[in-house]
Design a protein that fits this description.
The complex is a heterodimer of chains A (283) and B (312). Chain A has helices at residues 3-27, 32-37, 39-49, 73-82, 122-137, 156-167, 188-192, 197-203, 216-227, 264-282; strands spanning 64-67, 144-149, 173-179, 182-183, 186-187, 207-212, 236-241. With 283 residues, chain A is of the alpha/beta class. Chain A has one domain (3-282): Rossmann fold (3-Layer(aba) Sandwich), CATH 3.40.50.970. In chain A, strands 1-2-3-7-6 form a 5-stranded parallel beta sheet, sandwiched between helices. In chain A, β4 (182-183) and β5 form a beta hairpin. In chain A, α1 crosses α4 (73-82) and α3 packs across α9. Helix content of chain B is 41%, strand content 20%. Chain B has 13 helices and 12 strands. In chain B, β8 (190-194), α9 (198-211) and β9 (216-220) form a beta-alpha-beta unit. With 312 residues, chain B is of the alpha/beta class. Chain B has helices at 6-17, 31-34, 36-42, 54-65, 77-83, 85-93, 122-127, 140-152, 198-211, 229-239, 254-264, 286-292, 297-311; strands at 23-27, 47-49, 70-76, 99-104, 133-135, 157-160, 182-185, 190-194, 216-220, 223-225, 241-249, 270-276. In chain B, α1 (6-17) runs parallel beside α3, α1 (6-17) crosses α8 (140-152) and α9 crosses α13. Classes of the chains: A alpha/beta (283), B alpha/beta (312).
Chain lengths: 283, 312
């Protein structure tokens, strides 16, 4: 990856984080922690991998994305807004009574949202459905990406979906785990340990990669491997190690920021940090 | 069509309409029982067995439906409606996608398998969810038309089908309008409103009552949602007593829906709900179960006569 491209992606991600904080602050509710941990992954997918724009968002042969951890809607909305799917200023009305930006992604309200999600475990199933359609029905070969939370992997349906993804040899399907290690009640390992996720997913028949989910170079390398995986008959699973709350010092690696809005003082600190990050990248 | 279970009518309808390449069928390891296997034989490329994982099946169906397909999803009613309930609500109904849940082996007449497999709450649960239409056809001819209606009308459907053979009521030229009751007999003393296998019992009950000088109207309320409120209001105003009959809990299903409509009508009347009275099922032959739970034509006629006398 060129330095230039990396800088561009970092700048996009920093702006995205700024809008996540703006949206959650204005709503005085929402999920900043996980939104900030998956920001870089979504930034990469929408800028480099999906090739989806407002113009081709209804093309049956487009690539698909499903945010299975639907509570991180602020990250998805920020990315879509910055990519021109709607006026990014709408983020200030996130979760408001007259806004189309629902608390969890709603496909009938927001252009660019491929599936309504929010109830954990269902998004990955829907994503495998889209991949089945690509591989066996339309046969257009489009690819389907989904982002899961690690807490979400405690849902039995995730494992059902992984099972059917392998059974149907969905080599056009890529699940990315936002592995920040925290959930509402604390550390994933103390709430309900998932054990060796990579070994489990490999045992299910997946090709796996383990990366730093905040390194665009590593995200690109894994996604490129996935794209080259076509024809293998194996679905792809990327374990992205991330930090909850990444980009805002006091939110980082803190389960308390799973589903809490900043107060005025916290908002000021967070936006100061993000604004200076943006300024530094713009130079 | 002669006497056949509605699930058999479903399998035949899938094959009949299956040339439409938008149609995709999924099952959860019960394709022989639900009769989706009929479709599988003819259109194997558009059939997906999802194994014993109903929640995943329904949400996967939703994903396929986002791509412009019409997805029929089958399992036993118990698992299609209650195991996968939240997937039906959030992935299918909230999104208003073209997924048709065709649930077989509903009600007591599953028989010997007993309570864990006898779904008696599905219509109540499904009809409380926005966007979904709930249909419980009485025989194979009407099942065929219900499947046709599900294909022709965009959005979620829950179609409730049975395991056991039921008498043919309709000819192939019968009319089926979604949300409109079929009046099978006219009468002035009371109205029996039935769905599913209880429609043929209602017709027999009507004959028994007729022999006693009681004139009963019989409505086949094949669509539980949207309910034909006008037909219910007319029955209330014109016959003054309604008896509902369903192979389902008396709570929240056809009886519950009719009560709601009657209460909101301009001339309310008494409504008696024949069904399973807040109990679980049990093992037994279908006929023995219908007898034990008071869902035979004779029991229905007795109940109608008693309630009519009490009203007079």
């Amino acid at each position: 990856m060129t330095k230039d491209k990396e800088l561009q992606l970092k700048l996009f991600a920093a702006k995205c984080r700024r809008w996540i904080i703006e949206g959650v602050y204005c709503a005085q509710s929402g999920h900043p922690g996980g939104s900030l941990s998956c920001t870089d992954i979504l930034t990469y997918l929408y800028n480099e991998a999906l090739e989806v724009t407002p113009e081709n968002a209804d093309d049956p042969a487009r690539n698909r994305f499903v945010l299975s951890k639907g509570h991180c809607a602020p990250a998805l909305y920020s990315v879509l807004g910055l990519r021109g799917f709607f006026d990014i200023g709408e983020m200030r009305k996130l979760r408001h009574i007259d806004s189309f930006l629902q608390g969890h992604p709603c496909m009938s309200e927001v252009k660019g949202v491929d599936m309504s999600t929010g109830s954990l475990g269902q998004g990955i199933s829907a994503a495998t459905g889209m991949a089945i359609n690509s591989k066996y029905l339309d046969k257009t070969g489009y690819k389907v990406y989904t982002v899961l939370g690690d807490g979400e992997m405690q849902e039995g349906e995730v494992w059902e979906a992984l099972m059917s993804g392998a059974h149907y040899r969905l080599d056009n399907f890529c699940a990315i785990l936002d592995n920040n290690g925290l959930q509402i009640d604390g550390k994933v390992d103390s709430v309900m340990s998932l054990g060796d996720i990579e070994a489990k997913v490999r045992a299910f028949g997946y090709e796996t990669r383990v990366i730093d989910g905040h390194s665009f170079e590593e995200i690109e390398s894994a996604v490129t491997d996935f794209k080259n995986n076509a024809g293998s008959g194996k679905p792809f699973f990327i374990i992205a190690h991330t930090h909850k709350g990444c980009g805002v010092s006091f939110m980082e690696d803190n389960a308390g920021w799973h589903g809490k809005a900043p107060n005025a003082e916290e908002y000021r600190i967070a936006t100061d940090e993000l604004d200076s990050a943006i300024r530094a990248l713009e130079v | 069509m002669g006497d056949m279970a509605t699930r058999e009518g479903y399998g035949k309808a899938l094959v009949e309409f299956g040339a439409d390449s938008r149609i995709v069928v999924m099952d959860a390891d019960l394709s022989g029982s639900t009769k989706t296997g009929d479709f599988r034989k003819v259109y194997p490329d558009r059939f997906f067995d999802m194994g014993i994982a109903e929640g995943n099946m329904v949400a996967t169906a939703a994903g396929i439906a986002t791509c412009g397909k019409i997805v029929f999803c089958s399992s036993f009613a118990m698992f299609a409606s209650e195991r996968a309930c939240e997937q039906v609500r959030n992935s299918v109904c909230y999104t208003n996608l073209d997924v048709k849940i065709c649930a077989t082996h509903a009600g007591l007449t599953v028989g010997e398998d007993g309570a864990t497999h006898q779904c008696l709450e599905d219509m109540a649960i499904m009809r409380s969810i926005p966007n979904i239409r709930v249909v419980c056809p009485a025989d194979c001819a009407s099942t065929r038309l219900a499947i046709k209606a599900a294909i022709d009308n965009h959005g979620p459907f829950y179609i409730r089908l049975g395991r056991s053979k039921v008498p043919a009521i309709y000819g192939d030229d019968t009319e089926f309008v979604l949300g409109r009751a079929n009046q099978l007999r006219d009468g002035k003393d009371l109205t029996i409103i039935a769905c599913g296998i209880m429609v043929s019992a209602a017709l027999k009950a009507c004959d028994i009552l007729s022999g006693k000088g009681i004139s009963a109207r019989v409505l086949d309320m094949h669509t539980i949602k949207p309910l034909d409120k006008d037909a219910v209001a007319r029955a209330a105003a014109q016959t003054g007593l309604i008896v509902t009959a369903e192979e389902h809990s008396v709570n929240g299903g056809l009886g519950g829906a009719v009560c709601e409509a009657v209460c909101e009508s301009s001339s309310p009347c008494r409504v008696i709900r024949a069904g399973v009275n807040d109990r679980f099922g049990k093992s037994g032959t279908p006929d023995a179960l219908l007898n034990e739970y008071g869902l035979t034509a004779e029991a229905l006629a007795d109940r109608c006569e008693k309630e009519l006398n009490a009203s007079r």
